[in-house]
Amino acid sequence: MPEKHALLSASSSQKWLHCPPSARLEASLPDNASEAAAAGTLAHAIGELKLRKLFVEKGMSSRTYNSRMKKLTKDPLYDPGMERSTDAYVDYIKEIAYSFPAEPMIALEQQVDYSAWAPEGFGTSDCILIQGTDLHIADYKNGKGVPVSAYDNPQMKLYALGALAAYGLLYPVTDVTLHILQPNLNNFSSWSLTTAE
After folding, report:
1. Distance separating alpha carbons of residues 79 and 33, to the nearest angstrom
2. What's the rounded Cα separation, in Å, for the pair 168 and 180?
3. Residue 121: pLDDT band by 50, 70, 90 thresholds?
4. Which of 153, 170, 160 is nearest to 195 (CA)?
5. pLDDT tens-digit readout, 30-73
6. Which residues contact 194 (CB under 8 A, 6 or more apart)?
7. Whole-model pTM?
8. CB 187 within 8 A of CB 180
9. 88 falls in which pLDDT band (50, 70, 90)?
10. Which of 35, 84, 76 is nearest to 185 (CA)?
11. Is 175 in contact with 192 (CB distance < 8 Å)?
């Protein structure tokens, strides 16, 4: 996860799109990251490692994988429930990846730049999958509080714009599907739109 944060971050887009001054106000406040946010960051790292071994670093040895996982599980915020929730995340991504007729391009924890639409805007997309004309953006939510929907989700749409800016010249994407994966609430939602939309 990146250390720096965009003033117009994708994760806070719901706020600044409806109340633009809120972005500057929040930037002036001290960053008081919560324990829940830190646990979410840890769960993301666990999910990323599992997906990295499956799709990105296919030659990763069991020894390397186990060593990296051991470091993550030694974190004081580690909870064995993270295994179940990240397994559900991985299973969902596998289902998308294996539904394509050929192996997709997969980028994990990819910083995307959507500054063409929001000044100096960037964010980190958990998982980007592209195959043929299809782009899928998946966002893992570790939270147990409020269910989040993929439907018309501004954060996800900004990630999609950033992915299109990064990969649009390489892939003839016409269709985008946004996914929110919230295993701790058994909340899995998706929403599709065209690149023109």
Report:
1. 19
2. 22
3. confident
4. 160
5. 555 678 888 889 999 999 999 999 999 988 999 999 999 999 99
6. 174, 175, 176
7. 0.84
8. yes
9. very high
10. 84
11. yes
